Amino acid sequence: MVFVALKMLVGDRAKFLGIVFGITFAAMLITQQASIFIGLMTRTFGFITDTTQPDVWVMDPKVQFVDDIKPMQDTQLLRVRGIEGVAWAMPLYKGLIQARMDNGTFQNCNVIGIDDATLIGGPPEMVEGRLEDLRRSDSVIVDEVGARTRLAKPAPGAPRDAEGNIPPDWPRVPLTIGDTLELNDRRAVVVGICKVSRTFQSQPVLYTTYGRATQYAPRQRKLLSFILVKAEDGLKPEELTRRIREQTGLAAYTGWEFSEKTYMYFVRFTGIPINFGIAVALGFLVGTAIAGQTFYNFTLDNLRQFGALKAMGASNRTLLGMILLQAAVVGVIGYGLGVGLASQFAQLSARSELAFRLIWQTLAATGGAIVVISMLAASLSLLKVIRLEPAIVFKG
Fold first, then answer.
1. pLDDT (tens digit, 9 = 90+) per residue, 157-204?
2. What residues contact 7, with CB distance under 8 A and at least 6 apart?
């Protein structure tokens, strides 16, 4: 019966391909949109996951997510260092500062200021140069993507107008070690290129020392963005966060808690989940409609064959097993093609601004959705076959 079921399935090639196309489209759209959503949400807390040294992040209680900076007084750093169980506590500056480039244009950059002495909070991976080079005068480290895109410099031989500006359409080449930028009318020399996680706003990321970052930043009374804290050996970070909150009145979170807080802010207060949810639901409904209608028509066209099998003694259970087998086959094929196309799309867009992160949970969820679609597509056919009279074979 398995051979007969498969023979019937591929016998009408047009309907077979139509069912597979419907399921493939659903699998591709669900996987693609869910992966883009996860990739986009991952970018919201990418800076937190890049900064692996601290156990606890300390900040103003009004901070809602990682880019919602509420500066604190520098004296808060000393208060945190005095708490029992703190192995070390280091300052961190994070802010948007405009960089002026050689062609006269400006670009907002995420400037990260890390502790001058220990350099704790630095980039997770260096591509060129060394982290220790930040101790040089006016030095900054630029992220790899920003260096080759938004901070790229004009190619040699660029003409300049009367004010010294270069035409914006002149070819550009990546920023390299030794090049200079201007941050808030101050000179910044590139001493390294690093690799960091893409941010939600996709702004270039510049690392420098905390003291230098406060000079680049616009003058204001408070400049301390975060305090990075390491717990002493044997002390759970959750216990240390409780002590910091009780003794300072500041907000304190573990890295995971701060990432979750940032993620949930975007889920609750932006339309991103709704937009992607509609796209996923649309893929599910369209896939169900195409596969269900085509599968039902396929069953109608093969009613005489099912009737013949029933007349020869095949039970309803056997016939239902054949239909479920057919649904499973097209489901597996459609799932494989859909996920494969989504993965290929991710490869083609790997160097673009598109956020795409494919994880096993997405594949499992897509697989579950395809099972539901396949079962819904087969359900109408199941009812038709159960009510089928074998006498249909003998009708004209």
1. 767 776 666 776 777 888 899 998 899 889 999 999 999 988 887 889
2. none
pLDDT at 329 over 80: yes
Greatest CA separation for the chain: 95
pLDDT at 106: 86
Query: pTM of the entire structure?
Result: 0.81
Q: Which are the contacts of 380, defined by CB distance < 8 A and separation ≥ 6?
A: 292, 295, 296, 299
Phi then psi for 97, rounded to 5 degrees? -130, 140
The token pair that represents 281 in the structure block: 């639901």
CB neighbours of 375 closer than 8 A, spacing ≥ 6? 327
Q: List C-alpha distances in Å: 303 to 212, 240, 319.
A: 79, 70, 11
Instruction: Give the pLDDT confidence of 25-47 residue by residue, as tens digits.
Output: 888 888 888 888 888 888 889 99
Give the CA-trace dihedral at 139, 141, 146, 148, to 10 degrees. Answer: 80
pLDDT in tens, 52-93: 999 999 999 999 999 999 999 999 999 999 999 999 999 999
The residues near 106 (Cβ < 8 Å, ≥ 6 apart) are 98, 99, 100
**Residue pointed to by tokens 């616009």:** 218
Instruction: Report pLDDT digits (tens) over 17-30.
Output: 888 888 888 888 88
* Residue whose pair of structure tokens reads 């160097």 in the numeric block: 351
How far, in Å, CA of 328 to CA of 19, rounded? Answer: 11
